[in-house]
Design brief:
8-stranded mixed sheet; alpha/beta; single chain; about 270 residues
């Protein structure tokens, strides 16, 4: 079921599928949408209830004006859970910036989180990376999403985002459909992000996954993040950055393993 509701002052599009005692909330990558998780959800639905949604500024959710902060995104998640009467602790699965939202939420609202499943988690950018990212954000805002396509993608080149894909034109079209101003705001939020003080405060079962062919956030970087989270289990899989899109079967299997090992069942239900 896909629907919309108002949460934390914004309209959010969401989809709930499957069933179970607990809920697995799926947080998409920057520039993604709830459909980013569709192939994973297809394999999870027989085992667990999932809740996916478009973050503010993405997909068909509202795109407010003004600066974006991670607290807006964690507030949206809390508002969504409250509006849906999800009072029991949920399990959060996120990729990249989605994983950053999951980690900050777990620190802000520890009573609302039962576990974390993190794919290539973002924690901030280095001082060396910041100028280039801010420049790209400005170009996207001024020139549109084609500035990002030209910067990052060549359909004839085996870029990590296209690993194993035959629908390259569709992927390109989906990227071009994003709102440039919202995308630029997300990049600026990433530049201001610093989760270095959050990691050691995470106190729930956590699985951290890196992609062996991830050039955006290499495995060595992800491993350092996992090392700071108490009792986190770290694993590398043969994939690129957006693992839930590139390798959904691998990701679904790892999620089910995580649920089985930490919650003693095929899924939390």
């Amino acid at each position: 079921m896909i629907a919309w509701l108002d949460a934390n002052g914004v309209s959010l599009r969401y989809a709930s599928r499957g069933q179970g005692r607990q809920t697995l909330v799926l947080l998409h990558e920057m520039g993604g949408c709830l459909e980013s998780w569709d192939a994973v959800v297809g394999e999870l639905s027989p085992h667990v209830r999932t809740l996916a949604y478009d973050a503010r500024g993405a997909g068909s959710s509202e795109k407010p004006v003004g600066a974006l902060k991670i607290e807006h995104l964690t507030g949206d998640l809390k508002g969504l859970l409250d509006a849906l009467s999800e009072r029991a602790p949920v399990i959060l699965a996120g990729c990249a910036v989605g994983a950053a939202v999951a980690m900050r939420f777990a620190v802000q609202f520890p009573e609302r989180v039962a576990g974390l499943f993190l794919l290539a988690p973002a924690t901030g950018v280095t001082a060396e990376q910041r100028p280039a990212i801010l420049d790209l954000a400005a170009r996207i805002e001024a020139e549109g999403m084609r500035a990002r396509i030209e910067e990052r993608f060549d359909l004839s080149y085996p870029h990590e985002f296209f690993l194993g894909r035959t629908d390259r034109q569709q992927v390109r079209a989906r990227l071009l459909s994003h709102d440039p101003a919202a995308y630029a705001r997300a990049y600026r939020m990433l530049c201001d992000l610093d989760l270095s003080g959050d990691l050691a405060r995470i106190n729930v079962p956590t699985r951290v996954i890196a992609g062996a062919r991830d050039k955006t956030r290499p495995a060595a970087v992800v491993e350092r993040v996992a090392a700071v989270i108490p009792n986190a289990r770290y694993e590398v899989i043969d994939s690129g950055h957006a693992m839930h899109i590139l390798s959904p079967t691998l990701v679904a299997a790892r999620i089910l393993d995580f649920l089985r090992e930490e919650f003693s069942t095929k899924g939390p239900g």
